[in-house]
Design goal:
The complex is a heterodimer. Chain A is about 75% helix and about 0% strand. By secondary structure, chain A is mainly α. Chain B is globular. Classes of the chains: A mainly alpha, B alpha/beta.
Chain lengths: ~300, ~525
């Protein structure tokens, strides 16, 4: 009996390892290809295609990227600032919303919950959203537009609310009140302290959202100085693709230099590098917070 | 208990009805708000008209009211040059003096530009000037009322520009009898031609490509003598690189025709069904033959690169079809990398007997209907085209800093393109080129030569002025595009062994997608256009 079970477990383990190794290779290979391509001379990429080991080693790609380090750096700064500001403000607002919605003595909480929940099901779509932001809020081309739209994500508010509900016993509110704490004090000193794992989770979701966001830049930013990092990269790569697509019919001759293959790859490495190093350190909180939130939710 | 159950039931009914209502509202909302918007626009247009007429009445002599300072929003496609802000400042200094206006140059970037373009025009944002072209669907947008008709504005706001652009060009850009765009007057050709490695042709004594047969013979020679080389550089866009080129060799009318319609230049009133015809079959058989001979690569549908790069690094020997300007670009890059290589060019026009210069719609600027200052915008645009200072500053940058003009009057970039903040035509200002102020790069002489040759056989482009209205078959159109990608592309790349069976399957699927409805409607519209223009 015992042996059989062991055998079974061992087999399961073996299968799991094979699958996981297979998956990680599948994830790693494209990345290795990008690294290798960024170190290959452009001519060789076009002629011989991509190889895992560069056929003709060259640092040309990186040199081209760093001719204009100020542009990459500027995009970095924009992304970092919008990530920090967005995450801090977003956490503040969302924990507050979560706290309020978790309090049973808040009379309209169902109405508000429904109102928030409703937006996850029905949205106006792209055009109304665009009109709202550009015409009524006048946020076109401003730094605010990079931060504001992500501040109140319905899904994260609901997550936060459920988390607070389960992590903070209701009696604590009463006992806080009896001891003379106001609502804000209860929120700030009791609720926040008790829901740290939840905050870490939501914070990570938010930070990743802001770091990876390119769509907002794409739609609302015209000034090249305000591009986010991801959009900067996306744009560089896309311009080249666009020119390939435009084809013979239009005769649009673009005077601007099209980045070569190796440059595009080098840029991808430069852009993804920092988050790659950051991720392993942050990830453990991520997993922990997510499970805690999930069990109770 | 009963009560609760009842309440629960009624609650759920209420909820479902609310949800379905909002669903309906969500669907209808767009058209509703669009209608409202249209109405509002109409109103404001009317208001604008009356205001304008009073303006004209009171200020007939000065022509343009510049008493109020305005900022114009100017939209271009593509990426902005690095030195844009300094150029903008310089332009603003002049514009403020001349027109009491400043301008903000905005760029869409090439990333998802079509979506952004759509949003810019549909969101009612206040934009004063925007780039238009046939490939940005000027005709469709104009028809839908996205732009302001400028017929009445021109004489007051931009009289010199009105004089400068030839009358037949104004006529040619009209949609439903109104002018919605200011066409560019620089004449160029984007018609196709064969591109090939001339040094290899000489080395192996191959025939010069002047028609389909000699082109094929050349490629076979390459295949035989340089087995490692790709004879033909292609990418996944086989529709453009193979099909469109092939049909333009067969004297099809102007631009690439959609939905398998065929219209011959010599007989425009007879639009016919090209897909499934013998002519179509011959095209596909030719491609199959090329594939069998190894002239087209097997994985062509997976290639995403440009078609020019492989030629420059010596991986491929020819491009089936490219226009003179891009051929020249390729030539320059090839020469820079491999000075001893040569590139040949043979325009299709010489074979089929005519070439069409670009239609006036191909490059232009419109005033969107939401512009707050259409008059000033037009006056400013006039400056961009007609005033040498404005024009050269926005086309070439600052003289002495970005470029210099050599003794023979040729344009020369200072430094190299990656360090210079403003390359030639760095603002993508193809639309406000003024032939009188243009400075050309020395390397452009080759293009001019080709243009001069084509000038001798030029005939007007009769196709591009046609504005297709696909609202009645939008769904079918989308379905058909899918079918095309799945069933026609492999045929066009010669990848299907049994061509006859391939055509049958494709035609079947296309018919299911609603091909007949599309074709009937398209041909009806085309015939109306032919009637109207008297072709």
């Amino acid at each position: 009996m015992q042996i059989q079970k062991d055998k079974y477990t061992r087999m399961l383990h073996a299968i799991a390892y094979v699958v996981i190794i297979g998956l990680s290779v599948a994830c790693l290979l494209p990345f290795l290809l990008i690294i290798s391509a960024s170190l290959t001379s452009n001519e060789s990429i076009i002629r011989d295609g991509y190889h895992l080991i560069p056929k003709q080693f060259s640092l040309e790609g990186y040199k081209t990227v760093f001719i204009f380090p100020d542009e990459v750096l500027r995009a970095y700064t924009v992304t970092i600032i919008s990530t920090v500001v967005g995450t801090t403000l977003g956490l503040f607002f969302m924990t507050m919303a979560g706290y309020v919605l978790a309090r049973k003595d808040f009379k309209y909480r169902n109405t508000f919950s429904f109102y928030i929940y409703f937006t996850t099901l029905f949205g106006g779509g792209l055009v109304p959203w665009y009109i709202m932001i550009t015409k009524y809020l006048g946020l076109l081309d401003s730094y605010a537009v990079l931060v504001l739209p992500g501040l109140m994500t319905p899904f994260l508010i609901i997550l936060m609310k459920n988390f607070i509900k389960s992590a903070v016993p209701e009696e604590l509110f009463d006992s806080g009140k009896i001891d003379g704490a106001g609502d804000f004090r209860i929120y700030w000193q009791i609720v926040l302290k008790l829901s740290m794992p939840g905050i870490a989770t939501v914070g990570l979701f938010l930070a990743l959202y802001y770091w990876n966001d390119w769509f907002t830049s794409s739609l609302f930013i015209n000034d090249t100085h305000k591009y986010q990092l991801q959009f900067y990269l996306y744009n560089v790569i896309n311009s080249a693709q666009f020119i390939a697509q435009m084809g013979a019919g239009t005769g649009v001759s673009l005077a601007t230099e099209v980045p070569a293959e190796s440059t595009k790859m080098a840029m991808a490495i430069v852009v993804t590098g920092p988050i790659l190093f950051l991720y392993p350190f942050v990830q453990r909180y991520f997993v922990k917070g997510l499970t805690i939130g999930a069990v109770k939710g | 208990m009963q009560m609760n159950k009842l309440r629960g039931k009624s609650m759920s009914i209420l909820l479902t009805s609310v949800l379905s209502l909002t669903l309906l509202a969500g669907c209808g909302g767009n058209s509703n708000s669009a209608n409202k918007e249209n109405a509002a626009v109409k109103e404001s247009n009317n208001g604008g008209n009356t205001a304008k007429s009073t303006n004209v009445g009171t200020e007939e002599k000065t022509g343009l009211d510049t008493s109020k300072k305005v900022e114009l929003q100017f939209y271009m496609l593509g990426d902005a040059p690095k030195d844009l802000s300094s150029i903008e400042a310089e332009i603003n200094k002049m514009a403020e003096e001349d027109l009491n206006a400043t301008v903000k140059f905005n760029y869409t970037t090439w990333t998802d530009w079509d979506q952004k373009y759509k949003l810019l025009l549909s969101s009612g944002q206040s934009i004063d000037l925007i780039f238009t072209a046939d490939w940005t669907q000027y005709q469709a947008y104009a028809k839908k009322g996205a732009f302001l008709a400028i017929d009445d504005l021109l004489p007051t706001a931009a009289p010199t520009l009105q004089q400068f652009v030839p009358q037949d060009m104004w006529e040619a850009v009209k949609i439903n009898g109104k002018i919605y765009t200011v066409p560019a007057t620089y004449k160029e050709y984007v018609t196709n031609g064969f591109v090939w490695r001339e040094d290899l042709r000489k080395k192996y004594n191959l025939p010069q490509p002047t028609d389909l047969a000699s082109y094929e013979a050349y490629m076979e020679g390459i295949k035989k003598n340089e087995p490692k080389m790709l004879p033909l550089s292609l990418n996944s866009n086989v529709r453009e690189n193979l099909h469109d080129a092939y049909t333009s060799l067969n004297a099809m009318v102007g631009g690439p025709l959609p939905y398998g319609i065929g219209i011959k230049y010599s007989d425009p009133s007879k639009a016919y069904q090209y897909w499934g015809s013998d002519e179509h079959k011959e095209e596909l058989l030719t491609m199959r033959r090329w594939q069998e001979k190894g002239l087209i690569s097997k994985n062509v549908l997976n290639v995403k690169d440009t078609i020019q790069d492989p030629l420059i690094v010596g991986k491929a020997a020819t491009i089936f079809a490219d226009n003179p300007t891009r051929f020249n670009d390729t030539l320059m890059k090839l020469k820079a990398a491999h000075p001893d290589w040569e590139l040949g060019y043979y325009p299709y026009g010489k074979m089929i007997g005519y070439a069409t210069p670009v239609h006036p719609i191909h490059n232009g600027f419109s005033i969107p209907k939401n512009s707050k200052n259409p008059e000033r915008a037009l006056a400013f645009y006039e400056k961009m085209v007609m005033d040498k200072r404005y024009n050269q500053l926005t086309q070439y940058g600052v003289e002495g800093k970005n470029y210099k003009v050599d003794a023979d009057g040729y344009y020369e970039l200072i430094g190299d393109a990656s360090k210079n903040g403003f390359t030639r035509e760095g603002m993508n200002g193809w639309a406000w080129r003024n032939p009188e102020f243009m400075i050309f790069d020395k390397s452009y002489d080759g293009v001019k030569e080709i243009f001069a040759e084509l000038d001798k056989i030029q005939k007007p482009d009769i196709f591009t002025g046609f504005a297709e209205d696909y609202t009645s078959y939008q769904a079918e159109k989308a379905a058909l595009e899918q079918v095309e990608k799945q069933y026609l592309y492999p045929l066009q790349a010669g990848l299907v062994e049994d061509v006859d069976a391939g055509i049958v399957t494709f035609m079947e699927k296309a018919k299911q997608a609603g091909l007949e409805k599309i074709q009937t409607e398209y041909i009806k519209q085309w015939n109306a256009y032919v009637q109207e223009k008297g072709l």
